TrEMBL record:
Name of the protein in question: Uncharacterized protein
Transmembrane segments annotated in the record for this chain: 67-88
Source domain of life: Bacteria
Record keywords: Membrane, Transmembrane, Transmembrane helix
Stretch list, region Disordered: 100-119
Biological classification of the source: Bacteria, Bacillati, Bacillota, Clostridia, Eubacteriales
Compositionally biased residues, Acidic residues: 102-119
Keyword Membrane: yes
Length: 416
């Protein structure tokens, strides 16, 4: 850095001395003066006549009924102003020892030579805005189906499928909270979080590849099938193949281009159905997806993930277990969280409870996606046993479409 010129020597200097010294320093041009002024104005935020501050991560934000655009705008504005605040701080630090009055002109050129003007970099918005976790309440009651529909409608938002991520709660916050020493893992908040994740898993992942198996023992019959699956949830495409205990592929499921195709390998028959991709989905609040109704209707269930048809039924039950959660866990008095463990390398909650018919329930839930990793149901009175388990799982990995080949197969035709 240049040594600053001591102006005190000019106090008693004659004009010859002043002229000799000033030969080394040229006057600041008008253009350079305007450039300095413009930089100072930009750095200080004087053009806006306000000081903006960088936002912080927000969760528990009550934005159930607000449109996504408002939340997105908040994040973008927050990030865009952060760089300005940083520059304002730097400007204040640099000007703390700046010479004043006559010294300003003498140091202006030095400042230009020492610092190369750089373009102001706008800091990207990285803070997320989360939905507020609804604490679970008993299902609302209606006297009629019409009344039940009106209640759900009042608490339902129509959202773009591609923007569903913006309706997440702060998973990291709650997952870490459940693992904190001293935290009550069976509090209303903790159970509400687990229930929310099971009923909204489709918000928390974009693709899944893996395997699962299940076991059913009913009235003396035993079944030990397994399945391999891959689903591109974002684009609502998928493929599954079901394998019996003899390792034969007995069924294949294809979903793409607004079609669902089921191929029966044993009979050589396939069937094709039209199923349009859901561009928009109805998204009710957690506490208003099921309404109790007086007889003879009994109840009304609104299931957002049920309109997404990219997974074969057993795969759908594991990856998007919304209806199973309603059936087994809606009554919080019937189940508890036993602890947090690791399953297939994923952080999971271990649940157990008793179903209304006396069946004993055990369930393992991925804390970060809401995927049901394991389900065991046993009824000692009836001898019924149902077990499902994910045996391998990769989340948010590239998925290549598998297309159906009808060669040599017969298409099933339905007639009225």
């Amino acid at each position: 850095m240049k040594k600053r010129f001591d102006l005190e020597i000019l106090e008693n200097a004659d004009m010859n001395t002043i002229d000799a010294l000033s030969d080394k320093y040229s006057a600041v041009s008008e253009a350079e003066t305007e450039n300095i002024f413009r930089r100072v104005m930009q750095n200080s935020g004087a053009a806006d006549e306000e000081l903006r501050v960088k936002g912080v991560e927000v969760y528990h934000r009550p934005v159930w009924k607000k449109l996504l655009a408002a939340a997105s705008a908040l994040v973008l504005v927050t990030g865009a102003t952060a760089g300005g605040v940083y520059l304002y701080r730097n400007f204040g630090a640099e000007t703390a020892d700046m010479p004043t009055d006559n010294a300003e002109e003498a140091t202006a050129e030095e400042h230009i030579e020492e610092e190369t003007p750089t373009e102001v970099q706008t800091e990207e918005a990285t803070e997320a805005v989360f939905m507020e976790l609804q604490l679970h309440e008993a299902a609302p009651y209606a006297e009629s189906m019409e009344e039940a529909k009106a209640i759900i409608e009042e608490h339902t938002t129509l959202i773009p499928w591609a923007d569903r991520h913006n309706y997440r709660v702060d998973v990291k916050h709650y997952a870490e909270l459940l693992q904190c020493e001293g935290y009550d893992i069976n509090s209303l908040e903790a159970k509400s979080f687990i229930y929310h994740m099971l009923r909204n898993s489709f918000l928390y992942f974009d693709s899944a590849v893996g395997t699962l198996n299940w076991y059913i023992n009913y009235e003396g019959s035993n079944f030990y099938p397994s399945a391999e699956f891959q689903i591109d949830l974002q684009n609502q495409e998928g493929y599954s193949k079901c394998i019996n205990e003899d390792n034969d592929v007995f069924l294949e499921f294809f979903a793409y281009d607004d079609k669902i195709i089921t191929k029966e390998n044993i009979s050589g028959i396939y069937q094709e159905e039209t199923c349009s991709k859901a561009e928009m989905i109805r998204f009710p609040e957690d506490n208003y997806r099921y309404i109790e109704i007086a007889p003879p209707d009994y109840g009304l269930n609104e299931c957002p993930s049920c309109s997404i048809n990219c997974a074969w039924n057993k795969v759908h039950d594991q990856l998007m277990p919304e209806e199973l959660a309603l059936a087994f866990l809606d009554n919080f008095d019937n189940w508890q969280i036993n602890g947090i463990s690791e399953y297939l390398g994923r952080t999971a909650a271990e649940l157990s409870g008793v179903y209304d018919d006396g069946s004993e329930l055990k369930m393992t839930v991925d804390l970060y996606t809401g995927i049901m990793l394991e389900l065991n149901i046993e009824n000692s009175d009836t001898g019924f046993v149902d077990k499902m388990a994910v045996t391998s799982l990769q989340i948010d990995v590239p998925v290549e479409r598998v297309e159906f080949d009808p060669s040599g197969l017969t298409k099933r035709i339905y007639t009225d």
